[in-house]
From TrEMBL:
Domain (ABC transmembrane type-1) ranges: 291-482
Transmembrane segments annotated in the record for this chain: 293-315, 349-372, 461-482
UniProt keyword annotation of Membrane present: yes
Xref: NCBIfam families: HEQRo_perm_3TM
InterPro entries the UniProt entry points to: AA_ABC_transptr_permease_3TM (IPR010065), ArtM/GltK/GlnP/TcyL/YhdX-like (IPR043429), MetI-like (IPR000515), MetI-like_sf (IPR035906), Solute-binding_3/MltF_N (IPR001638)
Family, as annotated: Belongs to the binding-protein-dependent transport system permease family. HisMQ subfamily.
Keyword Transport: yes
Localisation per UniProt entry: Cell membrane
Record-given protein name: ABC transporter substrate-binding protein/permease
């Protein structure tokens, strides 16, 4: 199962820890009111990665895509016993622990192992399920592969941050191990023969195999400890009263054998429902929602990014007294820092890091991060455009009695905008595609929706083809509109 942060999230966690007040942690451990806070709030936010059937996955329920599965049933039971409502927040598995530590979610139920390394950072309940591992292969290779030792010279895949990924790396010889963040991506890679096998939990392996006749499952024969093959609910460190209360629910679930008797059979029904109609037209609402959020993110980011870019460009060109020099230095440092760090890191830092002080929704965090990133690039376009305007234009404007501000506003900037319009148009097209990055924090744009469809239908290629076409339509339409205005400006 899932074991530890990836390298990227380790960096984010380190940055977050720099801005977490130490005194708050000490106070939280000294006075635990975690149970009281949840009951007072009336809502229990459950974080999960819905690409791991039958634990958690997407299914169409009453015409709406919904997170279902064994872990969701457990979450509902926990919330009911606490007397609160359950709210499910979907995100990539690698983001869950950071989200828990920064208060974005209240608990994790996502097939997570209570390993010693994790126990140092979060509190776990009693285990609610004991599983094992299989390796999923193409059925045509069933005679070739028998267990993990059969993949010598081959390629084995596993979800990054999981115990099966670590076991694949440490317990195989002469085997290339590739990690991916999504189970559906791994299965797609397997079926396209990029991988020879995919290591995953037995229930998940059985779910994929039962819904795809081209796949088969073989024993993994990994040597794993009990903590590495069991699942538990994770809470923030120091949430003793809350963990003790939830332990009573977990003990009841185990005593009454609810997982095998009720929760797994219910998940199996949803798995069968998903394969009744797997046509892409059946999921047009999901793709339409993805287009809507992609356009919202892009338009908002372009608007705010342009404003930020103008301010940064003017600040970078400021000269004179100490204040102007300081402003220029800050603007230059900002532009260089933003352009020197990945947008994915910026998105995650805005969502998780700034979220420590302001509880920003995922969509708002995504727009802020992309706007800040775009502003740094737009600033350089605008600065270059301003420098391209002949100095004689400025001198002519000043000779007419125009102030510096009026000269910049009415003479220089209009001409600069005309010169940099192609670059700004390219930035807009780029942002349409870059908006896909916010899917890592659970924003339901096109990439996120395509993953939902892939999880629903167990079809790997078809949803990818659909979003490729949709992205092309969006970018081609935008480029035609931008070219029209460019011709108008050139004519004027």
């Amino acid at each position: 199962m899932k074991k530890r942060f990836g390298l990227l999230l380790a960096l984010i966690a380190a940055l977050v820890m720099l801005v977490v007040p130490v005194g708050n942690t000490t106070h939280a451990q000294a006075a635990d009111n975690s149970l009281e806070k949840i009951q007072k709030k009336g809502v229990l936010v459950m974080g999960t990665s819905p690409d791991y059937p039958p634990y958690e996955f997407q299914a169409t329920v009453n015409g709406k895509s919904t997170v279902v599965g064994m872990d969701v049933q457990i979450g509902k039971k926990v919330a009911k016993d606490l007397g609160v409502k359950l709210k499910i927040k979907s995100m990539s598995f690698d983001s869950l622990l950071v989200a828990l530590q920064t208060g974005k979610i209240d608990m994790i139920i996502s097939g997570m192992n209570p390993t010693p390394a994790r126990r140092k950072n979060v509190a776990f309940t009693h285990t609610y399920y004991q599983g094992g591992y299989d390796i999923v292969i193409n059925k045509t290779d069933k005679a070739k592969y028998k267990n993990k030792d059969s993949f010598s010279g081959g390629t084995l895949g596993a979800q990054t941050g999981t115990t099966q990924y670590n076991a694949s790396k440490s317990q195989t010889k002469n085997t290339t191990v590739k990690g991916m963040t999504s189970q559906s991506d791994l299965i797609l890679a397997l079926q396209s023969h990029k991988l020879d096998g995919v290591a995953m939990e037995k229930p998940s392996a059985e779910a994929y195999v039962s819904n795809n006749k081209q796949l088969a499952a073989i024993p993994s024969d990994f040597n794993m400890s009990s903590s590495a093959t069991s699942s538990a609910i994770a809470f923030r460190k120091g949430s003793t009263s809350l963990v003790n209360k939830v332990n009573k629910t977990v003990d009841q679930i185990k005593k009454e054998n609810l997982v095998k008797k009720d929760y797994l059979p219910a998940a199996g029904k949803y798995l069968k429902t998903n394969t009744v109609n797997t046509s892409m037209t059946h999921y047009w609402k999901a793709f339409l929602t993805g287009i809507e959020y992609t356009l919202i993110i892009t338009v908002c980011s372009v608007f705010f990014g342009f404003i930020i870019g103008i301010l940064l460009a003017l600040a970078r060109m400021a000269k004179g007294n100490f204040f102007k020099n300081l402003l220029r230095w800050i603007a230059t440092a900002y532009v260089e820092f933003i352009r020197g760090t990945p947008m994915m890191v910026q998105v995650m830092f805005v969502y998780f890091g700034l979220g420590l002080f302001v509880n920003l929704p995922a969509l708002t965090s995504g727009i802020i991060a992309i706007s800040l990133n775009s502003g740094a690039y737009v600033a350089e376009y605008i600065r270059g455009g301003i420098n391209s305007v002949n100095i004689g234009q400025t001198e002519a404007a000043r000779s007419l009695g125009m102030s510096n501000g009026e000269t910049m506003r009415y003479v220089v900037l209009p001409q600069a905008l005309k010169n940099i319009w192609p670059s700004l148009g390219n930035e807009f097209i780029t942002l349409i595609k870059d908006s896909s990055i916010v899917s890592i924090i659970g924003v339901t744009e096109l990439i996120y929706q395509s993953n939902i469809v892939r999880s629903d239908t167990y079809r790997g290629v078809a949803p990818i083809v659909v979003i490729m076409v949709l992205y092309f339509i969006l970018t081609f339409t935008a480029s035609r509109i931008l070219n029209y205005f460019e011709r108008k400006m050139q004519h004027d």
